[in-house]
Amino acid sequence: MAAEVPTIAETAIQFGQELPESDRLRQQAEVSRFVRWLGPSRPIDQVTVVDVETYQDEVLSSGADPNLRLAPVREMLTFAKKRGYISGNLAKYIKIKRSSGKRTGGVETKVETEVLHVTPEGYADLKKEYEYLTTVKRDEIARELYEARIDKDFRENAPYDAAKQHQAEVEARIRQLERILATAQIVSQTASGTKVTLGATVILRDLTHDEELTYTLVGSTEANPAAGRISTSSPVGRAVIDRHVGDEVTVSAPMGTIVYRIERIQS
Questions:
Q1: Among 82-96, 145-159, 161-175, 204-218, which range has the highest average pLDDT?
Q2: What is the pLDDT of residues 11-56, one digit of tens each?
Q3: pTM here?
Q4: Domain 117-186: which topology?
Q5: If phi over 0 gives left and psi between -120 and 50 gives alpha, with beta otherwise, what is residue 173?
Q6: What residues contact 59, with CB distance under 8 A and at least 6 apart?
């Protein structure tokens, strides 16, 4: 018989017991914030990526030091993964970046804001998604919640719980889109066709397997490998960006290294 999955609160207690005395009070205080925010009686394996990213968003928007607030939460999620309480690596969704910046209480706190580069088409798609979620999807979820409330026994109201979860996911996505749309830099493809830049379509010759591949270089929010749209932060994207026709690049892959030659560039 499989062991019962602990609650979030029970996981936090176990995590605290393994901390050094010098770090225990500080880290447990921050973990306790996270536990209260999620709900202490919730099983740890029910925590989702959306939960983690939404909590991170709230911490960042509060102006608090993200390193002090989020690092203990990330460590607890790593602990839960090692114990086998959760299957996915939720800790990787907590990203703490530091660079020169503001001072808080006399102590310099460095927070780097990631700037996303998007094509005009990608920006239009993100704006379209935002408008759909805020003008259509929100109303649909409101109707779902209203209909679910007809059943007054919320303890066993699965449709209501599902609608609330759906609402949380949609609202998290809306907040994410708001950040992207407010800070994204729109980059148009203006190259002469000799240099690989964001938005360009590049034709590569796979010299290792002797085949031709066509990719369009886009920002991370627009990537769709199945459609031939790869991010500039992907292994192939990083290798070919800013390179020229005729250049050969080497990319590490699970099955070994692959050598590509840039055959043509289309703007």
A1: 204-218
A2: 988 988 888 776 677 787 788 888 888 888 888 988 888 888 888 8
A3: 0.50
A4: Helix Hairpins (1.10.287)
A5: alpha
A6: 66, 69, 70
Nearest CA among 39, 36, 45 for reference residue 4: 45
Residue with tokens 């800790």: 91
One-character DSSP codes across 218-250: E-GGG-BGGGTEEETTSHHHHHHTT-BTT-EEE
Say yes or no to pLDDT of 191 above 70. Answer: no
CATH no. for 201-266 = 3.10.50.30
Q: Show the CA angle centred on residue 120, arms to residues 116 and 124, nearest 5°.
A: 95
CB 6 within 8 A of CB 43: yes
Residue reference for tokens 């240099």? 195
Domain boundaries in the chain?
8-108, 117-186, 201-266
User: What is the residue whose two structure tokens read 């094509």?
Assistant: 119
Distances in Å between the alpha carbon of 233 and those of 150, 154, 239? 48, 45, 9
All residues at 6 or more sequence positions from 62 whose CB lies less than 8 Å from its CB, including other chains: none
Vertex 155: Cα angle to 150 and 158 (nearest 5): 65
Residue ranges of E strands in 87-235: 103-104, 107-108, 117-118, 185-186, 201-206, 211-218, 229-231
Distance CA 29, CA 140 (A): 38
CA distances (Å), origin 170, targets 79, 157, 187: 28, 20, 27
| Tokens read off for 4 | 């019962």
Residue 112 has pLDDT above 50, yes or no: no
The amino acid sitting at 110 is K
H helices of 83-157, in order, are 120-132, 138-148
Give mean pLDDT, residues 86-95. 85
